[in-house]
Amino acid sequence: MSEERSLNFLEEIIEEDIRNGKNGGRVLTRFPPEPNGYLHIGHAKSICLNFGLAQKYNGKTNLRFDDTNPVTEETEYVDNIKADIKWLGFNWDEELYSSDYFDQLFDFAIELIKKGLAYVDDSTAEEIAAAKGTPTEPGKPTPNRSRSIEKNIQLFEEMKAGKYPDGAKVLRAKVDLASPNMHLRDPLMYRIKHAHHHRTGNKWCIYPMYDFAHGQSDSIEKITHSVCTLEFIPHRDLYEWFIEQLGIFPSKQYEFARLNMTYTVMSKRKLLQLVNEKYVSSWDDPRMPTISAFRRRGYTPESIRNFCDRIGIAKRENMIDYSLLEFCIREDLNKTAWRRMAVLDPIKMVITNYPKGQTEMLHGENNPEVEGGDGVRDLPFSSELWIEREDFMEEPPKKFFRLGVGLMVRLKSAYIVKCDDFVKDENGRVTEIHCSYIPESKSGNDTSGINVKGTIHWVSAPHAKTAEIRLYDRLFRVEDPSNEEGDFKEYINPDSLEVIKNVYIEQDLSRAVPGKGYQFIRKGYFTLDTDSTPDHLIFNRTVTLKDAWAKEVKKG
Length: 556
Ligand code: ATP
Ligand code: MG
Hints:
Layout: H1 9-19, E1 28-31, H2 41-56, E2 60-65, H3 75-88, E3 95-97, H4 102-114, E4 118-121, H5 125-131, H6 149-161, E5 170-173, E6 188-192, E7 206-208, H7 210-221, E8 225-229, H8 236-246, E9 252-256, H9 268-276, H10 291-297, H11 301-311, H12 322-336, E10 338-340, E11 342-343, E12 346-351, E13 360-365, E14 376-381, E15 384-388, E16 408-411, E17 416-424, E18 430-437, E19 455-456, E20 458-460, E21 465-472, E22 497-505, E23 518-520, E24 524-528, E25 537-543, H13 548-555
Parallel strand pairs: 1-2, 2-3, 8-9, 10-23, 12-18, 16-19, 21-25
Antiparallel strand pairs: 4-5, 5-6, 6-7, 11-22, 12-15, 13-14, 15-20, 16-17, 17-18, 21-22, 23-24, 24-25
The chain binds adenosine-5'-triphosphate (ATP) and magnesium ion.
């Protein structure tokens, strides 16, 4: 898989660093989620990259919760983020929190004030923005820029002590009001926010801004390669400026293109809206692009890691086709999923020459892709079966290789049957079809000499269990809902969920567990849903057997 591809640009950088003996050859990356939502497939990309780089170069990866924003963060999110990373198959070295560094960050801020490199500004947000100038026009100092060091220390201590209301003052770095990089025009370091924090409680009423927290946290942990997405390129100068002025460990920031995928949205803010406004049932609703939703839907960690590997690391934004992810899960489940039979739209088949009331135990391979079939399961056969309504036609056209009067098919893992007759109700709807079976045609021991073109799935009626199945389609009807006019939620696909009740399934499926993949022959890959109970089995379709969507798009 990855062995043969050429190095990506980050691997090149790291190998160069190792060759030069930088950091003694040590590689320490970090994955820094903000605990304000569940992880999505974009985060999976970042996880695979950060943990993958460390694994490849005998390094380590820290999990650092970037929890500097007290208002949106919750412990529920922390727990789910950890579960998702573990499920993806990665282990972090240390579990850390930016909030653990609040004391240290405060001391760093004091240090910068003492060096004349930071000041307390009483100007409003509007005044500060107005004085910043434009990319072509330098900014102007606000009156507070020339405050004395003593005064700045006093005011900053008072901010910390809770003397001022939210928004009354900020601490700013004194960098360069004429810099072509707007992020260097005296950026904010601290703001006042009287809010409860999920870890530090009410200890703090001032909180560091991202730019003052992130790089310093990297440095405190001695992160060697701090990998983030492209929108942080303009922040890099400031990242380096703080580290240089403080003379602390020189972590380095590198940027790659975030993952964008068609037919979905990938921002926690938008995903939260879908949950709160009940467009989906929860963060792990199987239509969501979250890692927990993919897990619930039946995706395997391997398939997601494979997907992330296949799309590679780019330096330019691009849009990945959702069907590539589906390709990866199909490829994986084809090799691992056990084959089972389920009839979604049933019609009764009576085998008139088979003894009524008799049960014969047949067997079917779990997975023919595996040497030896991966074992077999019991497959009870009797004179009354359920088959798929679409596998019978009253007036079959030529080349219909399924059932109609006079036509023959093979019942998967069982016998060849011939259709003799059918019964209709008063509305003209076919209710039952009558067949005769060929006793010598038993699968695995077929001496009948009869060749049939079609094989259909079936379930023995007296032995069948019932289940509900949930079929999913794209959550949005357009490729890039965030880029359309109006609200992205206007582009939700109203048919993204189809529920089918009273599906007949093989009795063996009552032993299914969530996460174990099954191929319902001819119907797709499925897994047991977490809502399922022994009395009410529910299966999610993970993915169809073929890419029906690609065809649709071409047609449309
Ligand atoms: P969102 O905009 O979805 O809320 P975020 O960047 O605010 O995402 P964080 O929790 O801050 O979310 O992200 C943690 C890490 O994951 C960061 O390093 C971030 O760059 C990375 N990341 C987030 N979204 C993507 C994506 N779509 N592709 C790749 N990496 C991503
Ligand atoms: Mg963020």
